[in-house]
């Protein structure tokens, strides 16, 4: 039996030299946390899951780390609670075969995929030619060898160069894409354990061999435009992989880094609308850690990406709206719609704060960009961010998720028709009661940010006299097509990282959601 409030840190071991990571607040609590016993008791002998028995537990106390991966597969819509053990096993095997097929397709186009290695320097130009200067690859690879960062935000992206007065990255910042100097003159890729990555090979030697391999591939004829665009993203994936959750012992193993790179590379290949954007590695990393099978981790990540869309009751538009946070154009990025929603919510629940932020030039709410983009991964410890995610998903849970993803036509119009309202998450039930479920309900993540702002409202109103008092903005490249923004918190909002309580944040979000629904009706 667990002791009261058993810490969960031991399940996600932190490297001993990383002493400044946020402390974990999540504790395993008997009677509140969903335990192995309670989880198993929720299934019938055939395998049907009574999801209503688990949602309340998750909302109150999260999930025991030992079963977190398999519970997430249901919360994210990988499996239908009404399915049997046998049916789920058939789906699992079919998906594993499908993933293996996609991975083999990628390997045929770029043999590093599936090799246990990955690249961190570009090997191809935008016109489909191999990079002509192998020395550049060598230097880029050598710069990707250093100790873990003391400041986890300093290495969160591939480009951390200083900005000039116009907000554009200077020459050093532009070099960051190849892993060169960051904003403090330190190597941008400061999160790598060491240069030797596998079988005595160095990352730079892998980059060189990849360049030679690329020359051989191109010698057989011009590449398709889709292939060129995909290969162009692979080194950026590599740069992000070596910076993702590098405080965890788990990523000291080359095989785990390679698994993360492979999954993101395959996803970028099959989802050409989104491809790869910075931030996706932060969302994918927990799946690798929680699920042993690479294919299972891929499908869990794929379902998470599907969640990140602007919901709509028009299922014909669903495919165009899903993954909206990462859908980019030359002039905008999808998460901006969530920022607009945040502005609208704040205007309703705290009009004085909204007016104040607008007067400071922060009415676009760009300071919340990072929170929404990677679902608060930087504001919480690794363990607490998982706790926050599962509470959010339990609160938002819709039993039609599986059908919505697998058979959207069958799911259309079925909400609440044959299922008990107990099978829906508390947040979703509130939307159904108010009628907003039929009007593209806002995700709970937006209300979480609004709750943080509400808590800081008095301080912001009293002390913020300019946008610099709220945030410091660094302009970084999110995709090769457009410059956009990754935010570093400063001054007033600086103290939220590591100091937020996931349970209290969700409770605050639910209160604001209810308040917003009442005021919005008037």
Automatic annotation (TrEMBL):
Gene3D superfamilies: putative rabgap domain of human tbc1 domain family member 14 like domains (1.10.8.270), Ypt/Rab-GAP domain of gyp1p, domain 3 (1.10.472.80). Residues 62-396 form the Rab-GAP TBC domain. Residues 159-170 have a biased composition (Acidic residues). InterPro entries: Rab-GAP-TBC_dom, Rab-GAP_TBC_sf. One of its GO terms (molecular function) is GTPase activator activity. It comes from the Eukaryota. Residues 142-189 are annotated as: Disordered. This is Rab-GAP TBC domain-containing protein.
